[in-house]
Amino acid sequence: MAASPWEGEGGEVRRCSERRQKPSHAEDRGTTAMTSSWKQQLVQVLLVLVSCGHGDTKTAAPTPTPLPPVTPLKQDAKSAVLTGKNFTERVELSSPVNMTLSCTWKGDQDKPPNITGHWRKDGQEIQDSRVTVMLEDENYKLIQVFSVVSEKDLGNYSCVFGNEARIDFILEVLQMGEKRDKPVVSYIRDFVVMTCKVEENKPIPTTWNWYTSNGTDKEQINTTASKRFKIVSEERETKLKVKDLTLDDAGQYYCGAVYPIGTSVGQVELKVITFMEPLKPFITILIEVVVLVAAILLYERSRAKKDSAEGTQTNAEQNTEPQGDDKGAEGNDSVRQRK
Amino acid sequence: MYSASFPLSVKLGVCELNMPPAAVTNLGYVPPDGGWGWAVVVGAFISIGFSYAFPKSLTIYFKEIQEYFSVSYSEIAWVSSVMLASMYAGGPVSSILVNRYGSRPVVMVGGLMVSIAMVLASLGTTIIHLYLCVGVIGGFGLAFNLQPALTIIGTYFQVKRPLANGLAMTGSPVVLSTFAPLNQFLFDSFGWRGSFLVLGSIVLNCCVAGALMRPVDKRVRFKPSDGPPRCEGGAAEEAAEVDVSAQSADPAPEDGPAESKSQSYISRYIDFSLFRHNGFLIYLSGSVVMFFGFFAPVVFLAPYAKHQGTDEYSAALLLSIFALVDMFIRPITGFIGNSKWVRPRIQYFFSFAVSYNGVCHLLCPLASGYEGLVVYAVFYGLAFGMLSALLFEALMDLVGAHRFSSAVGLVTIIECGPVLLGPPISGALVDTFRDYKYMYYACGIFMLVPGIFFFIMHYYNYKKVNEELMQSALVISNNKEALQLRINQDDETMKSKYGLDTVD
Predict the structure, then answer these.
(1) Pick from B193, B207, B253: CB nearest A320
(2) Could you check whether A74-173 and A184-273 share the same CATH topology?
(3) CA-closest candidate to residue A106, choices A131, A82, A132
(4) CATH of the domain spanning A74-173
(5) Chain B within 8 Å of A317 (Cβ-Cβ)?
(6) Residue A325: which of B64, B100, B255 has the nearest Cβ?
(7) Choice between A52 and A251, residue whose per-residue pLDDT is larger
(8) Most CB atoms closer than 10 Å: which of B31, B84, B134, B368?
(9) What is the mean pLDDT of residues B475-503?
(10) What pLDDT, on the 0 to 100 scale, is given for residue B495?
(11) A 162-191 residues with CB below 8 A of B?
């Protein structure tokens, strides 16, 4: 934690921009020591206020006036223990946070009393992050606080012990659950509804966007521009309805859940087919059924003819069944034979 | 010359009456018990399979249809319920048609109906459209498949009927198992509309099944000298021609249509006198209670597994194990039911199956962990399969093939209520207590109580039938002697008159 730069008398020079950059330290501002000449201070305060209005300029004197209110960043911490050479942990974030990452390494066979450790972001070493790590309780520990405010602050943060032992913390935007890996199928001139959902226990996105793929780019869908597209978004769910489909509408669609920290993207593939596609198996099976039914009935007719040719008992000997089902059935049978 | 109304083949006195026979069948002909009968079993297999498996397999499409029409899940689930309700409610209509026209036309019409329903549904624009097409028309079409398939087995088989029933009922798990991956494939390739279209054509195979259901040849009369009487339920066959006022209380064959007099047109085609039939009443009252707990455990097996912490694939695997065991136990049950030890006492076997289901559910909460659930799935598969295979055989055994058509129609429409209410009640139990075990206890009780009820009632019923049959046997043997006397007398007169030998 940086010491308050405003201790001491006479004030120290502090740039306005610096003050703006570290709003978290708003609480840290200690009370300034009152000088003997408060009038002098008041003048300096006025000067500071005037010059701050003009941007980054070196100003004099600290000021007791509070800065404009800023929402304090949340605090969060993730830690990991490394036993081998590599370890990766994924961290999902939705809003800006002060992330404390702590790494503990059990060390090699030979445990030197101190080693150098440093931090990397996306493979690049972070400046001024090299420190000497002491061996405490058979462990080496690296702790660092990172201020993760916007999308560019996300990425792969690694703590490196010595040269090889490394723990990766992958800070990324909250991923959407329920990834649909199979395409949604719909028909020409029909409509389709594609949904994206965020799980119950995850935070609600600020807003939802939909994109369509245009070559390699993602192009946002504008519902006012094209009437065929309609987006209905509730808190945890968004639906894209595309009417009057054509074959060109097929392809990848992306739904973006916008969080303060960045956008989480989900993917839905749309396939558009004509009604001929399912019609083909339909007709095939229809033909199969007709053939089978005809075969069975023809076989039966040929056997009946053979039977009657052999001159077995006549039909007059039919007994009278109360329900008359054999009468009805055989009546129908003969009707079929007449066909 | 003598069209004997009392054939001389009545050998009831010879048959051991300590094996309680089935109800008097009064068939008037010899069921083939084989031959084309096996082709009919194949047809019934297909029809029954489609009837039971089709509504269950449609659930795979619900999620997408729900998104498409922007409705809630319960509104979509109604499609399944309406279909099941129509299938059961269509029972009596189906019975009437089968009594009038026979099985074959009804099954073929049923197949066509479901097919048209699915094709229309694939063009549907609102959810109401789906309710009407898939739910109502589809459901009725399936009803027209189920009843006739069951009825025709009774006309083709007598001695081997339990086996035939068991084999035919195997259609349900087999078709369900084939439909599950098939539906997934169709859905991935064609979306829900195309799938409905293709399903419409697949369901047309019911018409093929119908074509196989050739009406049985009733010209083959009962042959007098048939060797030793086959008493495995064949005792009923022996008494076939006799107008026994036993528990079946079947009116003489000629009575049927003429009996109506003041009664309505309907009663000509549906036999309401069944409600005076003891066996039928026992079966009906037991089933009504039983069906409350029949389907719910299947529906909740996967959610229960997930609640216990298993992942989705393992939970689905449980259902597959269940279906596999179910598939194999049904023909085996049919075979056991056919054996000479069990056949005469098949109602006890049925009662045992029902009670076993109950015990299985009561013990389910004791199952711990995934292995426990697998064991439960296996035992439940055994229980469910046994019960399903015997379900209609027991009814046929009680009322006889003659009246089975009406009986099954009445039974299904009355069972409609418990079948539809069972899963929601169980669901409510789960939601109220936040624990599945109370639901399993409830289902267990729902099945155990009818099981014990069946045991007790059938004990008394068998005794009563035995007594009545012994009485009528006495009557018959008396009449037989009288007839023999008469015939001898007539012989003498004929001989003396025309100097001819009697045609025997």
Answers:
(1) B253
(2) yes
(3) A82
(4) 2.60.40.10
(5) yes
(6) B100
(7) A251
(8) B134
(9) 83
(10) 87
(11) 182-187, 190
